[in-house]
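Students often ask what a holo structure prediction actually looks like on paper. The answer is less mysterious than it sounds. You provide the chain, you provide the ligand, and the output is a string of discrete structure tokens encoding the 3D arrangement of the protein together with NDP.
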Amino acid sequence: MSLMSRTVQIRQHGGPEELQWVDLPVGDPGPGEIRIRHHAIGLNFIDVYHRTGLYPLNMPATIGMEAAGVVEAVGEGVTHLQVGDRAAYASPPPGSYCELRVMPAKCVCKLPDAIGFETGAAMMLKGLTAQYLLKKTLPVQGLQPGDQVLFHAAAGGVGLIACQWAKALGLQLIATAGTDAKCQLALANGAAHAINYRSEDFAQRVQQITGGKGVKVVYDSVGKDTWEQSLACLRPLGLMASFGNASGPVPPFAPGLLGTKGSLYVTRQTLFTHIATRASTQAMADDLFAVVAGGQVKIRIEQRYRLADVQQAHRDLEARKTIGSTIFTL
Ligand code: NDP
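The corresponding structure tokens follow.
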């Protein structure tokens, strides 16, 4: 008799009401795959893009990109995981909103003893993103201690990890967030300055804070609403690191604009390029595990929902009501 998994599925792109519970059969893992039983599941903004169709999926579709649990079965050729291992992942294909699943083993990492399931589920996608943003996204100059960077939506899941990690690296992170309370949270988590970008002109404040020089890097996951002003925050030869679209996609622009703003660089990064191989995934995860186990980065789980309440969780995330990381329990 085949195993069944309670799973969240969408039959078409749309609002949170499209997220429906179904029972799906789960088979044995094939070559390069594992079967994992989840203990906790992470909520991420990319799940909203998958649900709405900003990032289209074939229907019917399962969603969710992050979870932690126990390895139940291992397919041929998988050598880094064994049955019974505690493990966590950030990985395509979407489908982590479920009790158990079969998935590629490549992006699944063994969890160190010091890191629990909930922390694992709350940090893999967000923490590996903070890792590559701060350490692998500046091929041109390299960030040095003391450098000033601007990080939008800094009280969110990726944001609070980035605030703490940037401080541990000696960077001066200027945070933006949508309420004064969120700004305080960013400051309490290591940001050097915080700007409420819904009540203040953040580009003007950045120029004040940096003495008119501008920052070396802007990390922008907000997209449409912040794009143009973000360019005005950069010093000459600065880097615009676009990595998300919480307010909508960045509109098309003419490259000549980058010249007139001081020979700026622009990159649009995605985690999945950085974790394309087992070796790169493990190296980045080891870096993340070290700062989490070492206490330099604390994973702030500020919201917990039952997976059955997935619709409410999506509503709250889109309404900007969440802070830090959010997990689902089963
Ligand atoms: P967050 O917890 O940061 O939630 C998103 C935040 O964006 C909100 O809390 C809100 O904070 C801010 N925001 C600004 N404008 C809007 C808007 N119009 N609607 C909704 N939210 C808005 O989410 P995550 O930590 O999961 O992800 C953060 C961002 O990073 C997302 O854009 C995500 O897509 C991106 N990302 C990209 C990755 C990549 O590799 N490219 C990987 C992981 C995440 P506030 O109220 O303070 O403005």
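The longest helix spans residues 117-135.
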